[in-house]
Design brief:
It is built from 9 helices and 17 strands. It is α/β, with parallel strands linked by helices. A 7-stranded mixed β-sheet has the order 5-2-1-6-7-9-10, sandwiched between helices. Strands 12, 13, 14, 15, 16 and 17 form a 6-stranded antiparallel β-sheet that branches. Strands 3-4 form a two-stranded antiparallel ribbon. Strand 15 (275-279) and strand 16 (284-292) form a beta hairpin. Helix 1 runs parallel beside helix 6 and helix 5 (119-125) runs antiparallel to helix 7. The radius of gyration is 23 Å and the shape is elongated. The two termini are 41 Å apart.
């Protein structure tokens, strides 16, 4: 089996490692071009690119993979199969037609649920109790190809996007290696067509998606905190003069507080060493760990003590959060 692997990020790295461990080291790695990770740093290769360099495997890192000169590079490899995982560019039909056996993709959900760019975040936000990985045929329509194999995993109450992506990537690598072995054995693998009536779609995150809307329930907001951890982290704004923007690292749902009355959405109910309890549309959310603007991570209790929070304090409602221009300026810290 002569394989070309198209992948870039940390989700793709365990996949290519699993292929290599199973005896299917790629003949060529295609990855996103090197980029600066820091404002003043040098351009760095993607994790998959770096792994290929360690192996001595040739790397093709075009800015636009579908250009004719890029397709010529891929055709020269005379590959049997393209394996795709978290590559980061849409693939043209001309590219997909190159390998003899077609192209397969490792996707981080149980298709047809959560087609799109953010399936792990979407599963947590929706309160799904199960997700998984799917190996699918790559077609021009996004994540719509026939599914060759799937493997499921439970979503635990403490799972965040970081922990869940790590588990799914390892699982996806194992499953991809098994599927490639079936191709190598000459097994026909057409896959099962997806049920169109069961399709759900997720999109790339926008900055406004990160801001906590206190009119939502505490359970929804707690899932939002986990869905955006470890990055870019959920956001909120304390309405003081001047306002204090902060990222929320950890939070928990509080069923009831002894001796305390109900708090309105966004209103501080209690603030002590255990954290900051805030009213929501349904229940209370206790902030446990935060990152105030221009400061290091700290416990919410330490912030509450220093800021002397009380029930007179409020966090911004959705329509009081910063505008898009203001939010864009904060992206560098996430």
């Amino acid at each position: 089996m002569k394989i070309v692997f198209l992948g870039s990020g940390t989700f793709a790295l365990p996949v290519v490692d699993a292929l290599d461990a199973a005896g299917y080291r790629p003949a060529l790695v295609v990855s996103q071009p090197p980029r600066r990770r820091r404002r003043r740093g040098e351009a760095e290769p993607t994790p998959v690119h770096q792994r290929a360099l360690e192996w001595g495997v040739p790397v093709h890192a075009p800015a636009k993979v579908n250009l004719p000169e890029s397709l010529d590079v891929l055709r020269d490899r005379v590959a049997d199969l393209f394996v795709v995982a978290e590559y980061g560019q849409i693939l043209s039909q001309a590219l997909l037609d190159i390998p003899r056996l077609g192209s397969i993709n490792v996707h981080g959900s149980l298709l047809p649920r959560w087609r799109g760019a953010t399936p792990v975040e979407a599963a947590i936000l929706a309160g799904d109790t199960e997700t998984g990985v799917a190996i699918q045929r790559v077609v021009r329509e996004l994540d719509a190809g026939a599914v060759i194999a799937t493997r499921a995993v439970a979503i635990g109450p403490a799972d965040d996007t970081g922990s869940l992506r790590e588990r799914l990537a390892l699982m996806g690598g194992e499953l991809a290696a098994e599927v490639v072995a079936r191709f190598a054995a000459g097994e026909p693998l057409p896959g099962d067509e997806q049920d169109g009536s069961a399709v759900t779609v997720c999109r790339r995150l926008k900055t406004e998606d990160l801001w906590l809307d206190w009119s939502k329930s505490a359970a929804e907001l707690e899932r939002q905190v986990r869905a955006f951890r470890p990055r870019p982290l959920a956001r909120t704004r304390l309405l003081r003069e001047p306002p204090v923007d902060m990222k929320v690292v950890a939070a928990e749902v509080v069923e009831a507080l002894d001796g305390e009355g109900a708090a309105e959405p966004g209103q501080v109910a209690t603030a002590d060493r255990d954290g900051i309890c805030v009213g929501t549309g349904d229940g209370l959310l206790r902030l446990l760990e935060i990152v105030p603007a221009a400061r290091k991570p700290m416990t919410a209790g330490a912030f509450a003590n220093g800021a002397r929070l009380s029930s007179a304090d409020r966090f911004a409602a959705a329509d009081d959060a910063p505008g898009e221009a203001s939010r864009s300026s904060q992206r560098g810290g996430s």
